[in-house]
Amino acid sequence: MRKLTVSTLASLDGVIQDPGGFGETDQGGWANQYFTDQAQQEALGRLLASDYFLMGRTTYELMYRSWGNIKGGGPYLDRTNEIPKLVASRTLTGSLPWNATVIQGDVAGEIAQLKQQTGGDIEVYGSSTLVQTLMNHNLIDEYRVAVHPLVLGGGTRLFTDGGVRATLQLSDARKLESGVVELVYLPASKE
């Protein structure tokens, strides 16, 4: 059975929007200075343990535009480019570039079926709307939130006002050399 992990970079005030500087906001790239060798190795390890990279349409389009044609950018970027991507979208159709497949219709049903199969994990980055859908169907096995020591004052947050409620259990917490604190939570019902 596959594990589905939501991994996200967040500011202290909960903003997840444009941490890599993909051109989505004027303050984009706020997490780049914290993406140390240690952070890259940990992110690479999670991608290597995963068979799929699941994301929403906006995250897919932003990442593809920035990273989709870069070859030889190092192990993390190489794995990001080669891993099969599943894109949840109501508007995209047909085949997608960057080793991606669009999931239309019942995203929760498709992911639930995929989770029942044997194989590597499913990694989700950002994608707050998709995360709400996954939460609503109890499909998330682990939340990894890397809290960065800065306040952005505005932007898209992982957990939206009026979103799905959840009770989580802290599984791990540690401070990275950069000052980022990585929090790992499990749904209380999946302890």
Automatic annotation (TrEMBL):
Gene3D superfamilies (alphabetical): Dihydrofolate Reductase, subunit A (3.40.430.10)
Domain Bacterial bifunctional deaminase-reductase C-terminal: 2-181
Record protein name field: Dihydrofolate reductase family protein
